[in-house]
Each structure stands twice: as structure tokens, then as C-alpha cells.
């Protein structure tokens, strides 16, 4: 399973990339707005820090506009992944861009049929939004499960499932159990994954006992 970090904050990306745990980055217009920084410059900086796929989302809603923006974004770096919305225009853009050899992330996926269409359109990634489905009383993880089953039914569907809108460490665990290919997680969740109180307690005991031995390893 790959981990992408879901942020446009350069300092957080640098910190997490240094851990060796980050395989890619996802951004969206809301995250760019939150950063308060220039979109294209931010994407360029992220692409230099992380060699894996870096999602940059188009702002146009019509196919021609999306394609024009995608061509501009693709010039930034080889690892830019064009993010398009799961609309008919977005799927048309996805088909054209993937046929040109670009990586495409089809975002805002909320049901299995949409994911099926994204795969048919040649998406590199489809982004089902787990947390937002949970927010409205639906089961986000059920969607991941359904997409996994559908993609596994057909060898020609090679799109990676990128579990998005991840809000908890349990979302990560469940997505991994189901077999999502990627989880894009906020930095706080990525950091929380390593934590367990018994790890902290156990380490404290080991260190105290080691000190009693009076020994040194180096
Ligand atoms: O990758 C999509 C993700 O950023 C959406 O997350 O928490 O805004 O639903 P959220």
C-alpha cells in the first residue's frame, strides 16, 4: 500500500518526506487556498521534494478548459498527476489525457459506478471520498470494498484505488485491510499511525532497565 500526503503545506511535506514514508502528494483547490500560496509554484516545489505522483487539480469544469489547464500543469514536472472531477466532462478529459500518457487522478468519487467509469476512462487513480460519505451517514469503507471487488473482477481495469478524505487512523487500517492501493492522508493522521501507548510505555521501561546495566553499545 502506498501513502500519499494530502496537503499543500511545503514544511509538512518536507518533514514527512524525510521519513521515507511518503510515496506521493495530493492537493485540491481547498488545500491550495488554505496554503495561501501560488498554485503552480507550490506544485513545482512539491514535485522537487517528492519524486512520486503529485496531484494538481484543474479548475475548469468543461473538457476543453480542463485539457488546456492540464497541459499547463503537466509542464511543471514529470510527476504531476492531473486531477479532474468525476463528471462527464472530467471523464472525457481523463480519456484524452491518459491516452497522451499523462497520469490522471479522478476525484470526488462517491459511488461504485462512478469508479467503474473512471477506470474505463483510463484513470491512473480514482479517489473515493471516505470521510465525506461517513459525514452524511453513509459507509465510506463500503465504497472502497465495492470498488476493490469490481476492479478485481476485470483484468482490464487497472486504475489504482486512492482512498481519500481519510479522517482517522481506523480509516487507514480498514482501507489497507480491504486492499486500497493508496491512502492519501492528512499529515496529522500519518503521524498518528506510529503511535501506541504500549510502545511508549515499553520503551520507557527498556530505557530505564538499560541504564541500570551501565553499558554502552557504541
Ligand atoms: O483528497 C481529498 C481530501 O482532501 C478531501 O478530504 O477531509 O476535505 O473530505 P476532506
Tally the helices: 11
Task: Output the CATH homologous superfamily.
Answer: Aldolase class I
Which architecture does the CATH hierarchy give at level 2? Alpha-Beta Barrel
Structural class: alpha/beta
Helix amount, in percent?
A: 40-55%
Total count of strands: 8
Morphology call: globular
CATH class: Alpha Beta
Strand line-up in the sheet with most strands:
1-2-3-4-5-6-7-8
Query: What is the count of structural domains?
Result: 1
Summarize the entry for a quick read.
With 218 residues, this protein is an alpha/beta fold.
Ordered list of secondary-structure elements with their pairings:
Blueprint (H helix, E strand, L loop, with lengths): L1 E5 L3 H8 L6 E3 L2 H7 L3 H11 L4 E4 L5 H12 L5 E6 L2 H12 L4 E6 L2 H9 L4 E4 L1 H6 L4 H14 L6 E4 L5 H10 L3 E4 L1 H6 L4 H17 L5
Parallel strand pairs: 1-2, 1-8, 2-3, 3-4, 4-5, 5-6, 6-7, 7-8
Helix pairs in contact: 1-3, 4-5, 6-8, 8-9
The structure holds SN-glycerol-3-phosphate (G3P).
